[in-house]
Fold this sequence. Notes:
Layout: H1 3-23, H2 25-43, H3 51-69, H4 75-102, H5 105-115, H6 118-143, H7 151-167, E1 174-175, H8 177-193, E2 222-228, H9 237-245, H10 248-254, E3 261-266, E4 270-276, H11 286-295
Parallel strand pairs: 1-3
Antiparallel strand pairs: 2-4, 3-4
Helix pairs in contact: 2-3, 2-4
Amino acid sequence: MDFNKLKYKLKGFMSYTWEYIHNVFFKLLLLFILNFFLFGLYFKEFFKTNFIVFIILLAIDLFLIKKLLYKRARIAKILVILLVIGLSFFIAQNYSHTLFDNFGLNTFIASFSGGLSDKMVLSGTKDMLKNTAESGKNIIESTSGSITHSKEDSQKTFEYINQLRKENGVKTIQWDDKIYELAKWKAEDMTKKGYFDHVDPSGKCVGSYAKDLGLSYPSNSFADNIFGYSSPTWFDQDEAVESWMDSRGHRYNLLYSSHIRGAIACDSKNCVFIGQGGSGWVCDTGEAGLAFWNSVGKQPGEK
Length: 303
């Protein structure tokens, strides 16, 4: 057995696990609170007369777990989620009654159980969901232009990219403020003009606009990754990075050894990483892009 290789893998696993917990801490906290409440109600036999409420809460719980797993269900993610759920079960089993009593929830639960039934809950669910959906739509429409990550958030995700580069034996790259502005402009341009492509409606790539932001490097030395968010409510830049690591061409760009500098930026709908260095990047898209990436060699860590 190669203990050095095992040590390296274990170190990488622990590093990824810690980074994952750090980036989704508030989601994990919400998962803990939701499961504590679920288990607490279960131990009070609340769901015997309110099964519809259980279904609704369970659906929310599963949706949150799906968001925590995202597309790539790594073992580290699964173990962390199971740990949080197990912890919430243990604490709810021993302390939920006392905590519910301290917050006055026991009286409320008792009155709720005695005065409502599944039939009553079900009859009001349709209107409630309709009103909630309409309110949510109004909120998203009114705030979608302002939901964005700060520069500090982007720099933290950029550190995550550099961590992935180190784990795969590639030198780190420097953060560049002007490239950040270029990435931010690209994300906002796609949102504003309603397209999702490396090439904009006028047929230009992101490098063609570099000079407008004071960048003097050749236009073909810029290479961008783009990612579209399906829900700004669960906006997490690291999701974009993990998705890129599962995609051949995007992974190639993230781990490209000749990159010297770069940045990542996101708005309410799109996320853009730009690496700068080397030369000869071609802004291929669609079938031409896939053909190019199928022709290049594999990178470190790529199966």
